[in-house]
Amino acid sequence: MQCEYYQLDQCRSCTWLDLELETQHERKAEQVQEILPMIPAQAWLPMAYGPEAGFRAKAKMVVTGSWKDPQLGILNPDHSGQDLSQCPLYPKQMQELFPLLKTFIRLLRIPPYDVSRRSGELKMIHVWISPDNEFMVRWVLRSPKFLSQIKSKLPLLLAQVPALKVVSVNLLPEHVALTEGAEEIILTPQEHLPMRFAEQTLFLRPGGFFQTNLFVTPELYRQAAAWTADLEACRAVDLFCGVGGFALWLARPSWQVRGIEISEPAVAAAKMAVAVGLQRGTLPQDASLEFFAADASEVFALVGDWDPQVAVVNPPRRGIGPETVAWLAGSGVKRLIYSSCNPRSLAKDLSQLTDYEVSAARIFDLFPHTSHAEVMVKLERK
Ligand SMILES: C[S@@+](CC[C@H](N)C(=O)[O-])C[C@H]1O[C@@H](n2cnc3c(N)ncnc32)[C@H](O)[C@@H]1O
């Protein structure tokens, strides 16, 4: 992939960019297999990957410069800004949106936040693009000072970008190295961005988690569905379910699925996806899907008596941890699918999951041009 920012040494986020994609894949596979020696060589399926450019669904842009000449990109260690609005990881439609957002900043004269001086208002702009090129934009502001101006001029931006469906303001008053604050004000009647994939539509709300690769993400859910396709009607739990991707792809006729997720907005979005799926007939009418906003450590209370036979776990980088390992050990879960963005915590958890053995594994290249890898493992109870 050609990237001017990389060539000019203006951004080095894609640490493997000098390598051909094929070489990246070989290296990634070697690296992952070294971290996970407990997975037998014959269990590994070929890597799942997508295009090398234009795949990123999300851009979290730090706003620097001035209102007359705003830069959208990253903050350098010396607190100067680097514009990355033409980063080739972003789809073309997203690259085309950034200049319009800059024009909007100029129109409103919103001063970018200056980290050194602790002055200015606009800290970041977060942009999501859906598989069918609709947008969600979030303005991260230091204070509500420009909220009414943004509200009053928003119809201009919406008229100029009809694909812009959801807009919000997020308030981050503290001088901290965070990308968002607690207060979210949604400015559009539509609060969710539909992420339409071939089989199901998921929904994303400002601040919610969503996998960042537009092309490889549905492959994750398809793989989990394929690894459970041999099972008759089942009870399945989707732990750390986010907006419900695994749960929806798993749900076949007569299946009952329960998702557990700590973020309430994500749970609301998952419920919305189910309602839409049932209404459109992409979900079987006799499938039952329920979602609970709870900590994963409450899994025993939420599904213990219900006794699921299948579990999908897709935790944050730290892994599932001892509580979930202990619950699985005492549960009736016969098939476990573990999808991890951190092979090291996966290795640690696998070494504790002594009642299970790995029958298949696959790397998903959600993060091309970097050493990061998503690894999904299918385990059977011994
Ligand atoms: C890697 S994401 C997976 C999301 C989802 N499976 C998907 O494919 O989009 C991890 C999820 O775990 C949630 N989470 C983090 N800590 C949690 C906890 N203690 N209990 C339950 N969910 C948690 C996060 O909000 C996030 O949605």
UniProtKB/TrEMBL annotation:
The active site is at residue 341. S-adenosyl-L-methionine binds at residues 211, 240, 261, 314. Keywords: Methyltransferase, S-adenosyl-L-methionine, Transferase. The keyword S-adenosyl-L-methionine applies. GO terms for biological process: rRNA base methylation. GO terms for molecular function: rRNA (uridine-C5-)-methyltransferase activity. Transmembrane segments: none annotated. Belongs to the class I-like SAM-binding methyltransferase superfamily. RNA M5U methyltransferase family. This is 23S rRNA (Uracil(747)-C(5))-methyltransferase. It comes from Boudabousia tangfeifanii. The lineage of its organism: Bacteria, Bacillati, Actinomycetota, Actinomycetes, Actinomycetales.
